[in-house]
Amino acid sequence: MIHLKSIDSSFLDFWVQKSENIFLIIENSGEIVEKNHIFKEFATFDNLFDIVTKTHQTKFLQLINRTIKEKSPQNGMIHLSLDSTNIEDIPKSYNIFTQSIDNDKILIILEPLPALNHNEAKAYFRMINDYSSMSRRLQKTEFLLNKKNDELTHNIKKIEYLSDHDALTTLYNRRKIFILLTQEINRAKRQKLLLSIVMFDIDNFKIINDTYGHQAGDKVLQSISKVFIKQSRDYESIGRYGGEEFLGILPNTDISGAFKMADRLRVSIKNHIIDIGGNQKISIQISLGVSQLVQSDSSETLVQRADSALYKAKETGRDKVVKGIFKQL
Known about the structure:
Layout lengths: L8 H10 L3 E6 L4 E4 L18 H17 L3 E7 L11 E11 L2 E8 L5 H47 L9 H18 L3 E8 L2 H8 L1 H18 L5 E6 L2 E7 L3 H16 L3 E4 L2 E3 L3 E7 L6 H17 L5 E4 L5
Parallel strand pairs: 11-12
Antiparallel strand pairs: 1-2, 1-5, 3-4, 4-5, 6-8, 6-11, 7-8, 9-10
């Protein structure tokens, strides 16, 4: 590659005009700034990238980027076509020489190579067809793999959701709510934070099932679960403990705060009208027990205290909240 700075400008002008080579100055984007008369066949094009054949676009871009980055002469081979998107169009081949001439412009010299003969043209088309066919197969394979991956991701999330949630109420199931409780207990002890829980149970749920049927009982569980979700704060968790019994985890809450939250929930459920079908609507009541974490607690002892308070609420009239107080031995 000839360094431009070593050439007299008048000789350079003569060389550019008389040479059979194509001389171009382009911007980094490929926009053509200057061109000599040999470029007349492609004169309607304003961007060099538009006439580089598809098979050479990546190599051409790499050559340009290397020229810009290394700021030194580069060379290679390139195919230009009047219709670069048409694989039936026979391209013209050139040796290409590039040199950066300032921060955002590149000198390009294209030295024409002999035109393809019939056999070479057939081989070229065969290569292009093979490339296009392979490219289409790869694109189809990539599409199918992405589709399968999306389906797999969706199914994994679905399985994770089903494994963590109660199918009837959509609340956390017993396994998941105990995992979350253990995590919250460990966090509260480690960071010396407050933590309380609330356990609640539907009063006289057996009578509802016996009177209206188990489908009505299911509708009751589904309906009040929506109230639980609506009443709880973002950082609180509620799960179905078993049957008609539920467990709520209340981080950063002492037993007084848990009592107030539980009583609000009790009133909300009492005022909630449940449509059980067949033009029948009923209301229900719940009993609740709350307990606060102490340093010696495990998940079992914390739940046991709240559960004992819940049963005390039932034994003393139902439709109330009772505190489970820790007793030092």
